[in-house]
Design a protein that fits this description.
By secondary structure, this protein is α/β, with parallel strands linked by helices. The protein has two domains: 310 residues, no CATH class; 90 residues, Transcription Regulator spoIIAA (2-Layer Sandwich). The chain is 63% helix and 8% strand. Strands 5, 6, 7, 8 and 9 form a five-stranded mixed beta sheet that branches. Strands 1-4 form a two-stranded antiparallel ribbon. The longest helix has 33 residues. It is elongated, with a radius of gyration of 28 Å. The protein starts with a helix and ends in a 6-residue tail after the last helix.
C-alpha cells in the first residue's frame, strides 16, 4: 500500500470512529442495553467486515435499524435471548450469502435508492435534535446558544476547510478542534460521558445463558429472521451507494457472509448485532477512506445528514418522470415514519407497478389486408399480465375476414397471462367460425405454449 493511501485510510478511520462511538452507544440505549454492548458490537462488526467483507471503505456497526427490531425481545425476554438471536441472525446472513442472493439488490430501482438515502438523512438529522434537550425539556437561554454555536462552528470548519486545504479530513479537524476548544475554555456543554456510563473491560467469550430447545427457537427465530433481513437490506443498499460514490464494484455475496460471521462473533462476545451504517460510511468515504484499513481504524452528525441527503434528487425532481418522483418522495416519507425494510419493499412494489403500467401502454399493433383477402396483425411490445386487455382489444373477430394471421416476430410472451390471452384470442376467432394462424414465435414462446399444452401454429 502506498504511503499516501495508508495515511488517507488512517485519517478517515479516525474521523469515522468519532462518529461511530456515540451512535453505537445511543442505539444500545434505544434497545435497552448496556452501552458497552454497542461498543463491543461496533468494534467486532467494523473490524471483521472491514477485513473480510466484499466492500472496502464501508463501515459496519451496531445500527439503529437493528436496535428498533430487537427492542421488544430485550424488554420481554432479556439480554441472553438477544445474544442467541444475534447468533441465529448471523447464520441466516451467511446462508443468504452462500446462496448468492446478495445480487438481488440489483432489482432495487434507482428512485428507491434516492428515497432510502433521503429518508435516512432526515432520520439522522431528527436524531440530533435530542442533543438540544435536557431530559424531556428543550434547551433555552445560554445553553441553547452555546450548543447552536458549537454546531455552527463545527459545520463551518467542515465546509470551509476543504477550500483552504485537503491535507486532512475536515470532519476530523472539526471534531478535534471544537473538542479542544470546549476543553480549554471549560465550556458547560454535554459530553459523550453524559450519554451513559461506559467504563468496562474487554469483551469475553461466552455462550448465551439460555435453554437450547425448540421453545427458545420459537421465541428467537422471528426476531432473528427480521434482524437478518433488515441488516442485509441496509447493508446491500449501502454497498450499492458505496459502489456509486467510489465508481467501483463490490462483492455483495462476500459482504453478506462476512456480516453474518461478524454478527456471530459479536453475539459470542456479548455485543449487539449490526450491519452497514450509511452515515459512518459516508463520513469515511468523504474523508478519503477507500481501503480496508479505514474500516479497521474506525473499529458531526448534523453534517452527516447534509452529506447523506441526495440533494441532487431535489434539483432533478422537475426533470425526472412524475412516477419516479413519486417513488422518491414515497420511500423518503415511509423511511422516516416507519422503517427501512418497509420503505424499500413499498418502493420496489410501487416501481414494479409503474414499470408494468408503462410497458402495458407500449404494446401496439399494425394491421392490413393481404392480396388473398386475409388479414395480417403485426403486434409490437411485451405481452404480460398488465397488457393482456390492450392486446385483445386490438383484434376484431366479428369483423375480420375468414383467415387471420398474427405475426409475433416483434411480440414477447413473458408469463402465463400472455399464454391465456393468446388462448382467449383463438377461442374468440373459433367462436366466430374463423381461423387464426400464429407465426414467427420465438423459441422461448414456443416452449411456453408447449408447456401450457397449446399448439403454436
Amino acid at each position: 500500500m502506498k504511503p499516501a493511501r495508508l495515511r488517507a485510510d488512517v485519517l478517515a478511520g479516525l474521523t469515522t470512529s468519532f462518529a461511530l462511538v456515540p451512535e453505537c452507544i445511543a442505539f444500545a440505549l434505544v434497545a435497552h442495553l448496556n452501552p458497552l454492548m454497542g461498543l463491543y458490537g461496533a468494534f467486532i462488526l467494523c473490524t471483521l467486515t472491514a477485513l473480510f467483507g466484499g466492500r472496502p471503505g464501508m463501515i459496519s456497526g451496531a445500527a439503529g435499524s437493528m436496535a428498533v427490531v430487537i427492542v421488544a425481545l430485550v424488554v420481554q425476554h432479556g439480554v441472553q435471548y438477544l445474544l442467541a438471536t444475534v447468533l441465529l441472525g448471523g447464520l441466516i446472513m451467511i446462508a443468504f450469502g452462500l446462496l448468492r442472493l446478495g445480487k438481488l439488490v440489483r432489482i432495487v430501482p434507482y428512485p428507491v435508492m434516492l428515497g432510502f438515502v433521503n429518508g435516512l438523512a432526515i432520520i439522522i438529522a431528527l436524531a440530533q435534535l435530542e442533543h438540544f434537550k435536557a431530559g424531556e425539556r428543550w434547551l433555552g437561554g445560554p445553553s441553547l446558544w452555546l450548543m447552536a454555536g458549537l454546531v455552527a462552528l463545527t459545520m463551518a470548519i467542515v465546509y470551509l476547510l476543504p477550500r483552504l486545504s485537503r491535507a486532512v479530513p475536515p470532519a476530523l479537524v472539526a471534531i478535534l478542534g471544537v473538542g479542544l476548544l470546549v476543553y480549554l475554555l471549560d465550556l458547560p456543554t454535554r459530553t459523550l460521558g453524559d450519554m451513559a456510563h461506559i467504563a468496562g473491560g474487554l469483551p469475553r467469550f461466552a455462550l448465551p445463558d439460555i435453554a437450547w430447545n425448540l421453545e427458545t427457537l420459537g421465541i428467537i427465530a422471528p426476531y432473528a429472521f427480521l434482524m437478518a433481513m433488515v441488516g442485509l437490506l441496509e447493508t446491500l443498499l449501502t454497498l450499492n451507494l458505496t459502489d456509486e460514490i467510489t465508481e467501483s464494484r463490490g462483492e455483495p455475496d462476500r459482504e453478506c457472509v462476512a456480516l453474518g460471521a461478524a454478527n456471530i462473533a459479536s453475539g459470542l462476545f456479548g455485543g449487539m448485532g449490526g450491519c452497514a451504517m450509511i452515515g459512518q460510511t459516508v463520513i469515511n468515504l468523504g474523508s478519503g477512506g477507500r481501503g480496508r484499513l479505514s474500516g479497521v481504524v474506525a473499529g458531526v452528525m448534523f453534517v452527516v445528514s447534509q452529506q447523506t441527503f441526495a440533494w441532487g434528487s431535489l434539483r432533478v425532481l422537475h426533470k425526472v418522470p412524475l412516477n419516479d418522483m413519486l417513488v422518491i418522495v414515497a420511500v423518503t416519507l415511509i423511511t422516516v415514519f416507519t422503517d427501512l425494510a418497509t420503505a424499500v419493499l413499498c418502493g420496489i412494489v410501487i416501481a414494479a407497478l409503474n414499470f408494468a403500467w408503462q410497458h402495458s401502454r407500449e404494446l401496439y399493433a399494425d394491421s392490413h389486408e393481404e392480396a388473398d383477402g386475409s388479414k395480417l396483425y403485426r403486434v409490437h411490445g411485451t405481452l404480460f399480465f398488465a397488457s393482456t386487455t390492450p392486446f385483445l382489444n386490438h383484434f376484431d373477430p366479428a369483423g375480420d375476414p375468414q383467415h387471420v394471421t398474427l405475426d409475433c416476430r416483434h411480440l414477447s410472451f413473458v408469463d402465463y397471462s400472455a399464454i391465456a390471452a393468446l388462448k382467449t384470442l383463438r377461442e374468440r376467432y373459433a367462436k366466430a367460425g374463423k381461423q387464426l394462424r400464429v407465426t414467427h414465435l420465438s423459441e422461448r414462446c414456443k416452449q411456453l405454449l408447449k408447456r401450457a399444452g397449446m399448439q403454436h401454429g
